[in-house]
Amino acid sequence: MATMKDVARLAGVSTSTVSHVINKNRFVSESIADKVNAAVEQLNYAPSALARSLKLNQTRTLGMLLTASSNPFYSEVVRGVERSCYERGYSLILCNTDNDAERMNRSLETLLQKRVDGLLIMCTENHRPSKEAISRYPSLPIVMMDWSPFDGAIDIIQDNALLGGEMATEYLIRQGYQRIACITGPLDKTTAQERLSGYRQAMNKASLDILPGYEVSGDFEFEGGLAAMQELLALPEPPHAVFAGNDAMAVGVYQALYQRGLRVPDDVAVMGYDDIQLAQYMMPPLTTIHQPKDSLGELAIDALLHRLQNPDSEPQVLVLTPELVVRQSVGLFIGK
């Protein structure tokens, strides 16, 4: 395998000149650059990324810790992160924590051993790196992408889940619905709590009662939405409308209604949250709250790169604004 010294010898220049040509970090005359590039091509020389990273103390690689899920929302966010990394000349190492605290901390150690320049964390509050693990690497730039507070000088990307939950419920109310149920995400997660609070706030403002059994805890997964909707349908007074805490659970709601021979929105209106790509292809297309997933990935990468360039700057809390997307899963309630 050819080395930089071999390239320098063949081109008749110094190794530092070869380095300047390859890295384009200092002016080199066109004639000399042509000699170096010809020698590189002839010897099929490939610069050592490891050697370069050790010299610059930078690998141009970012790490991401992610809790695996069947929820398409996460894969859409990761796609945005990967695209943003590529556009900025960075590589991404993705580690699945699988909701396991030990695996989380081992994955963190692996990423640090690979000398990543920064770290993205998108995990639930119950499964995130321990304070001890984080404190051992105080200079490592970190961005939290699970929209939850984390102790320490860490940048946070946060969904305005309270506003989103209120917007979703208010739209159902404006359409004439009064018996509105809420299927929450896991209530040990801040976003689930906030979306539930938004639902309650909207119901309270409209002076509408939340009937017994109308708040059902789900898990942000397809199966959780199915089980929760089955529970709601078993009530003496089933709801006329349901706000599912995310689109994945809304898919489960559709399945539960289909199994009972009920139609959306004629029998039950359904509101989701996230606006995953699947939402527009459901039958009928799902009315939901949009989160800008591509923008989320771009914002997270930019926040991380800003922290790399400005390590002493104050931690940022960046809040994403939700938007209502009206489709056909919510009609105009005419009374039953």
TrEMBL record:
Q: Which residues form the HTH lacI-type domain?
A: 2-56
* A Pfam family this chain is assigned to: Peripla_BP_3
Q: Which InterPro entries match?
A: HTH_LacI, LacI/GalR-like_sensor, Lambda_DNA-bd_dom_sf, Peripla_BP_I, PurR_sensor_dom
Q: Give a GO molecular function annotation for the protein.
A: transcription cis-regulatory region binding
Q: Which UniProt keywords are present, listed alphabetically?
A: DNA-binding, Repressor, Transcription, Transcription regulation
Show the CDD domains listed in the entry.
Answer: HTH_LacI, PBP1_PurR
Q: What is this protein called?
A: Ribose operon repressor
Q: Which organism encodes this protein?
A: Rahnella woolbedingensis
